[in-house]
Design a protein that fits this description.
- Helix 6 runs parallel beside helix 21 and helix 13 packs across helix 14.
- The protein is α/β, with parallel strands linked by helices and 589 residues long.
- The termini are far apart.
- Helix content is 40%, strand content 16%.
- It is globular.
Amino acid sequence: MKVDRRSFLAFMIGGAAGTALSPLPWKITDDISIWSQNWPWIPVPAKGEISRVNSACTLCPGGCGISVKKVDERVIKIEGLEGHPVNDGGLCPLGNSGAQLLYGPTRIRTPLKKIDGRWQKISWQDAITEIAAQLRQLRADGAAHTVGWIAGSDRGTVPALFNRFLSVYGSPNFWRMPSMWDAYELALYLTQGTRSMAGFDIENADFILSFGSGLIEGWGAPGYMFRAKSKMRKAGGRMDQIEPRLSKTAAKADHWISINPGTEGALAFGLAHVIIKEQLYNRNFVDGYTHGLSERFQQTIDGFPPEIAAKITGISAGTILTLARDFAAARRPLAICGQGQGHLPGSLQTFLAVHTLNALVGNINQPGGVWAVPEPDYIDWPELEMDGVAANGLQQPRIDGAGTQRHPHARYLLHRLPEVINASAESPLQVLFIANANPAYSLPDTAAVAKAFEKIPMVVSFSSYMDETSALADMLLPNHMFLERYQDVAGAYGFAKPIISLVQPAVEPRYNTRHVGDVVIQLAKELGHTIGAAFPWDDYNSCLEETLGDRWDGLVEDSFWVDDSYSGTQWADAFETDSTQYEFTNNDI
């Protein structure tokens, strides 16, 4: 029988369709699934007792609560903790993957020292003795201020131990990794006079104007942002996304407004111009609780009418007018900024301009608005007794220039550190400690960071993994992974209430690692005298339990403490500026 090409194709397609519609492929798939469970190389948890440990995730600044599921002493699953105020059962993919990091092959399993470019094992005692000898020599040479410490955060007991160690040793050079929260913190300080965390009551807002913030892409505390944004949308709220690219957040927004890169501040001033000229602002707040609107700030706003703002931003003047009127007419409008996930500081002027919009509509410390959230104040350790070396070292200027006449309000300027080191014939840093941070990856100019680190005689990393910064270090002292240790997490980025979460160990440490807090305490005791006396605790766990005090038992049981009674400071008492009011006018706007 002759079969032409068309008949052959019809036969093959018909046969494939018939096979797909028969039980055969589904039976084969089922059998493969059953057979694969018996293959010896497939990891299957052993049968045993199932238990759960409530804890908190530290893989990002969000501070989400987690429930760690175990079979016997093996972690098999991580889920969001139901009832946790930040994420209430939700969890991002990064948090879900924590077990892979715990059992992953890339962990650093023992202290290592780089000798002739190669890593060699070293005992914990030998490593601490060697570091202590170097630190002791620097103090003897009057160079205590040449020691620095980079941390992922400056909140909680672990960063407080780092800072305490540097202070009693004699160095002012503590840094936290830069992010948009630096700009938010400084914007709140300049306008409201308080050193606070920025919190956003997104779920109660009815119009969110986002200047590039990736609310569904990891901005702030992801679990909180996902949940709050969903509640806001279900209640009929509106969200407009302003950014140059069609991000995931922009795609899910009610309106995506494309803008020329870097012109967000000009748009915010253009919106403010319309709100002021058309007198759409909240008169109760602006007339009674603000200062400087009619002075130099008014002159600044006059330079951004819609026509000028349109030329700068690439957004039509009509769109700017409509957006300003809609924002001011909303019952609880909220303007936010910080591009993407917010891991970069951003422009202070942009943050001030966007924060101005919230002030004009009177949505500060109000439901659906931006809150100045005080940091939980529970670390009450004995006063330091410093010797002359420490006192002299703390009088030396910071290497990054923060707090100087040029940068009077800045607390940390880590991004300037590589530039300062590379511009010097000899590194102004002789010893650098790095914990819970990866500056060789996260800082903008990674080549400059690598060059600077090569000039520092001793770089000590406490990373649990061989990341970009660890590869540049001279000594690796691996910290316990977060599923193996205790630690407090003070605050959650973007959350509108004071909160403390407790990281609790789900399993015993798997390798020859050590809690970074224990290393700091042991190193201080090795140096002795006033430095050792500043750390009276036997280990980090006893330090943490003593510090948390009456909250300890509740934190162990629930894994979090939140100040539910906090409802923000009333306008009459909210501002600690010279005028005791919100300041529209300052030297940085």
